[in-house]
Amino acid sequence: MFPVPLSVLDLSTVRAGGTSADAFADTFTLAQAADRLGLERFWVAEHHNMPSVAATTPPVLIAAVAARTERIRVGSGGVMLPNHSPYVIAEQFAALEAMHPGRIDLGIGRAPGADQITAWALRRTQEGLGHEEFDEHLRLVRAWLSPSGVRTGMGTTLTATPAASSYPDIWLLGSSDYSARLAGRLGLRYCYAGHFGQLDPAAVIALYRDAFVPSADLAEPYPMVCTSVITAPTPEEADWLAGPAKVMWLGLRTGRLEPIVTPEEAAHRLAAHDAASLVATKYVGTPDAVREGLAELVADAGLAELMVTATAHDVATRVAMLESLAA
């Protein structure tokens, strides 16, 4: 058994030769596997205008995933709040919770998840949210998704939905110490984006714990880290399967955005690079070796839960990874 509950993040990646419809079908396959294996939660991301990622609208995808699974919690990893009206997000997740009581998570992030032009198309402005604005929008979403609601100047109370019987769990996500401290001050669940973040996970979680103030939602800190994983029966096969993630990593840094290539194509592309020095997936190896590394991460950071994600050409690789960790 894994030492803490295990969860999964999925980006609905588009594989070379595939379509967005294929990407969503793969997401449903992965979600059903996670549900069957007893994982804690299944989150979907928000990215825009990327040929390799079909997950652009978390509420729509969450509704589809929740309808195709039975018990696993389903949520956003995350909704990029600066792109949206806070009240619209509150209403969308209130509706999801009403449809699937006790199974919905609202993970909120501050990054745009898009380039400047796409951000303008989403927001009708290229201006982001400053810290104070983001803090206020987050507090409003939290209040709208609670029994208290928000008291208006007209003497009425504004809530996200009438006659709510339950509310989604709210998480703050991020890859910086700012998000960790804010989650602590507000008494929220926190997930560090370790699959791309460059900070020491244990140090970030320590900041979250030190800043934590108990709230009506959460009496004690609840930290989680998301990290990237690829497993296979041998180290050599695992490295082979991790090749497409390295090509994607290189593409993000060179402006070559494209669907996820095959391992064969990745090996061809990486021959011109020092592939061993490229770290696009944090844990690559046999199931035993990866489980040992993840257990060390859990112990070092004092995690309450661990989330994993995988960039791979086919969904079978991702399903096998979950099966190997949950075994």
TrEMBL record:
<feature type="domain" description="Luciferase-like">
    <location>
        <begin position="7"/>
        <end position="303"/>
    </location>
</feature>
<dbReference type="InterPro" id="IPR036661">
    <property type="entry name" value="Luciferase-like_sf"/>
</dbReference>
<dbReference type="InterPro" id="IPR011251">
    <property type="entry name" value="Luciferase-like_dom"/>
</dbReference>
<dbReference type="Pfam" id="PF00296">
    <property type="entry name" value="Bac_luciferase"/>
</dbReference>
<dbReference type="InterPro" id="IPR050766">
    <property type="entry name" value="Bact_Lucif_Oxidored"/>
</dbReference>
<comment type="similarity">
    <text>To bacterial alkanal monooxygenase alpha and beta chains.</text>
</comment>
<dbReference type="InterPro" id="IPR019949">
    <property type="entry name" value="CmoO-like"/>
</dbReference>
<protein>
    <submittedName>
        <fullName>LLM class flavin-dependent oxidoreductase</fullName>
    </submittedName>
</protein>
